[in-house]
């Protein structure tokens, strides 16, 4: 008997699979669930990375952050005691002045304070994040109101401790609707704040939407909200990208005069972004690994069904061997069926995962990549091979005489 061609194996396998559509669907279900989950999780992970990178870009360029506590460990990731440091360490105006005095080549040095707040205008109330900062922050962070949307508070406003503020785009819309907020007074935590501008929209979703649900006020006004003069973080902007590493080292040296090494961290945007991406990557792999359990379950299901199929088709196998089919041809036949079952589940899983990704992308960043699709098909193929070998070998080793006697 001639060796069966790939096209013949495919045709025979498809005929066999399509004879029992219900069984085929149930057999592929585990693969479908596993591949869908892996596609979905990797898509969300990739989408998050891209989204966070875009958010960092929108915050400005050539930025260095001085943060309380030892935020990063020796390997560059986030430290275990980062949260403790955030609570135990704070900075002061003196620290800002020291940095300004000793760093001649930076554009700005700004202190920041963030607080939770309640905004009220007439009968409307909204939660807002109060960001108390310097007059330079608007330009540095690309938050300056567009033409016709008012202005950012000035150096004079900051010096006079003026109760003025710039509303985030979403907060302005929620509180005022179609009404022009400029010149209106909003009550923030029982304090009257005159709105002088509406900030450029940063883009919502994923927690970073709080950038649009914000009111920016002068730092001194923020101190009155907080009830103390503690500064939570310090922002520096270098004149060019090449100076970042040098300024970071100089900043650390200056800060060490008043703080212990584990009481503060100096980081640039790329360092923070790299650490976040590392965490997201690890989390995505871990969750995908959990989802991959469904693929193993699906593979076991394929193996069991194929073993049952071998038993059901024992006489057919005996007849084929009697007319000249080789054990290798029988093995390939059943192995092809297992692989097609698995890849069919993989295809449906990819399509389903892609469709769900497109749906949630309207509300949450997600992106299907070629690598994740290629990986899904590769894993599906491998599952079919691995779990199809046992039933295929069993079929190939059947004695034609005993098989023909089987009832």
TrEMBL record:
Spans traversing the lipid bilayer: 25-45, 279-308, 329-356, 368-389
Main localization of the protein described in the UniProt heading: membrane
Residue ranges of domain MacB-like periplasmic core in the record: 24-253
Topology within the bilayer: Multi-pass membrane protein
UniProt keyword list: Cell membrane, Membrane, Transmembrane, Transmembrane helix
One GO term describing the cellular component: plasma membrane
A GO term, aspect molecular function: transmembrane transporter activity
Compartment list: Cell membrane
The UniProt record lists the keyword Transmembrane helix: yes
Domain of life: Bacteria
InterPro entries: ABC3_permease_C, MacB_PCD, Macrolide_Exporter_MacB
Pfam families linked to this entry: FtsX (PF02687), MacB_PCD (PF12704)
Residue ranges constituting the ABC3 transporter permease C-terminal domain according to the UniProt record: 290-400
Family: Belongs to the ABC-4 integral membrane protein family.
This protein's name: ABC transporter permease
């Amino acid at each position: 008997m001639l060796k069966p061609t790939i096209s013949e194996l495919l045709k025979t396998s498809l005929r066999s699979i399509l004879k029992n559509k219900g069984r085929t669907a149930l057999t592929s279900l585990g693969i479908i669930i596993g591949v869908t989950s892996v596609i979905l999780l990797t898509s969300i992970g990739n989408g998050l990375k891209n989204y966070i990178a875009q958010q960092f870009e929108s915050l400005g360029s050539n930025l260095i952050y001085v943060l309380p506590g030892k935020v990063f460990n020796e390997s560059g990731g986030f430290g275990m005691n980062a949260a403790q440091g955030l609570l135990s360490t704070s900075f002061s105006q003196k620290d800002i002045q020291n940095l300004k005095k000793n760093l001649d080549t930076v554009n700005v040095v700004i202190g920041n304070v963030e607080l939770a707040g309640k905004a009220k205008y007439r009968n409307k109330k909204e939660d807002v994040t109060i960001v108390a900062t310097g007059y330079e922050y608007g330009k540095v962070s690309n938050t300056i109101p567009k033409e016709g949307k008012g202005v950012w508070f000035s150096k004079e406003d900051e010096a006079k401790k003026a109760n003025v503020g710039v509303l985030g785009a979403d907060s302005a819309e929620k509180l005022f609707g179609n009404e022009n907020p400029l010149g209106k007074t909003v009550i923030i935590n029982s304090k009257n704040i005159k709105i002088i501008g509406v900030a450029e929209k940063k883009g919502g979703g994923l927690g970073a939407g709080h950038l649009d649900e914000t009111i920016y006020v002068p730092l001194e006004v923020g101190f009155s909200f907080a009830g103390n003069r503690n500064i939570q973080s310090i922002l520096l902007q270098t004149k060019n990208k090449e100076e970042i590493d040098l300024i970071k080292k100089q900043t650390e040296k200056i800060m060490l005069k008043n703080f212990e090494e584990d009481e503060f961290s100096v980081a640039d945007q790329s360092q923070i972004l790299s650490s976040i991406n590392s965490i997201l990557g690890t989390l995505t792999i871990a969750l995908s690994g959990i989802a991959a359990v469904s693929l193993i379950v699906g593979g076991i299901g394929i193996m069991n069904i194929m073993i049952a199929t071998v038993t059901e088709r024992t006489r057919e196998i005996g007849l084929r061997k009697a007319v000249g089919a080789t054990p290798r041809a029988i093995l390939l036949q059943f192995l092809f069926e297992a692989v097609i079952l698995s890849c069919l589940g993989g295809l449906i899983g990819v399509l389903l995962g892609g469709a769900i990704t497109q749906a949630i992308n309207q509300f949450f960043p997600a992106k299907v990549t070629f690598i994740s699709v290629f990986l899904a098909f590769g894993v599906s193929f491998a599952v079919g091979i691995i779990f199809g070998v046992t039933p295929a070998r069993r079929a190939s080793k059947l004695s034609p005489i005993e098989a023909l006697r089987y009832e």
